[in-house]
Design brief:
Elements lengths: L2 H28 L2 H8 L3 H7 L3 H24 L5 H18 L4 H13 L1 H27 L9 H21 L6 H16 L11
Helix pairs in contact: 1-2, 1-4, 1-6, 4-5, 4-7, 5-7, 5-9, 6-7, 7-8, 8-9
């Protein structure tokens, strides 16, 4: 990678990090490009060199976050462990990410609210969930093929259920973190799915 490319990427990261802080303080609607300029320490021209405007920054933050989540799932899919342990590892990583991003969780809620109002954001998030569901479904299908999980009518339905559980946990926890212990709740969600998928002793994973 050329020095110019590295410098450009570093500047973009600097701007996005500053924007996240501003969004956390003022919200997506309340934040302005001038706020982000001040927080980034760059000139206004320097900021606009990298991003066309606030909407461009918002979409870049979404892309960065979702790409990271997909990369984590794909890495776990490739791990040389059982399908059950892959799901447990995924849960552990999700918990670590949520705890690290706790100060920024309010922004996540604003992204969902924005998706309800803005078609391009809604389409982007919908496409991401489609990709995430496909990768998670593939992990579940591998578990079935290896006889670790029971055959099910639809791995996509199981994937959707797990995603909905985890997203719901994140939503409630972000609003009321005292309601429950995050680690216990995420682990419980995954173990409930595994209890339905893992064959009982003497039972085979594949249909006879």
């Amino acid at each position: 990678m050329s020095p110019r490319k590295v410098d450009t990427e570093a500047r973009k990261e600097q701007i996005l990090a500053a924007a996240m802080q501003v969004f956390a303080q003022k919200g997506l609607d309340g934040a302005t490009m001038d706020d982000i300029v001040r927080a980034s320490g760059l000139s206004k021209g320097g900021l606009y060199w990298h991003f066309k405007g606030k909407d461009d920054i918002i979409m870049s933050i979404l892309t960065q976050f979702f790409d990271q989540e997909l990369a984590v799932l794909e890495e776990i899919r490739g791990a040389d462990i059982s399908a059950s342990d892959r799901l447990r590892q995924l849960a552990a990583q999700i918990m670590a990410d949520l705890e690290m991003l706790a100060p920024m969780l309010a922004i996540s809620l604003e992204f969902y609210a924005l998706a309800a109002r803005r078609e391009e954001v809604r389409v982007f998030i919908r496409e991401y969930y489609g990709r995430y569901r496909a990768a998670l479904s593939a992990l579940l299908a591998e578990g079935i093929e290896r006889g670790e999980f029971r055959s099910v009518p639809s791995v996509e339905a199981i994937a959707n259920t797990l995603i909905a559980q985890l997203e719901g946990i994140m939503l409630v926890w972000s609003i009321n973190p005292e309601a429950f212990e995050l680690r216990v709740q995420v682990e419980t969600a995954v173990e409930l799915i595994l209890a339905a998928l893992v064959p009982h002793k003497g039972e085979t994973g594949h249909d006879s």
